[in-house]
């Protein structure tokens, strides 16, 4: 077993050397990684966010807790209070000015 491994080491060394040369010779690849940024994350709609929130909480809350949560979410979403939409608009505005709306900037 050890003899077999030692006979493969020169081949492994050649392979590692080839990979290192390839990485340092390919300047365009390195430049592409730095210069081309990722696309901006889209801001999900308020409805999509609240629906996902409720779907995640339903299995871990009791029926009474979930009913209360659903009532609060409906109030947050309602056009009477307009709180949800106001915060959504603020988030959308922040996302337009920021590279990553999730992190502080």
TrEMBL record:
Keyword Ligase belongs to the record: no
Pfam families: Carn_acyltransf
Keyword Transferase listed: yes
Top-rank taxon: Eukaryota
Record domain Choline/carnitine acyltransferase: where: 41-104
Pathway of action: Lipid metabolism; fatty acid beta-oxidation
SUPFAM superfamilies tied to this protein: CoA-dependent acyltransferases (SSF52777)
Keyword vocabulary terms for this entry: Acyltransferase, Transferase
Protein's name in the database: Choline/carnitine acyltransferase domain-containing protein
Lineage, highest ranks first: Eukaryota, Metazoa, Spiralia, Gnathifera, Rotifera
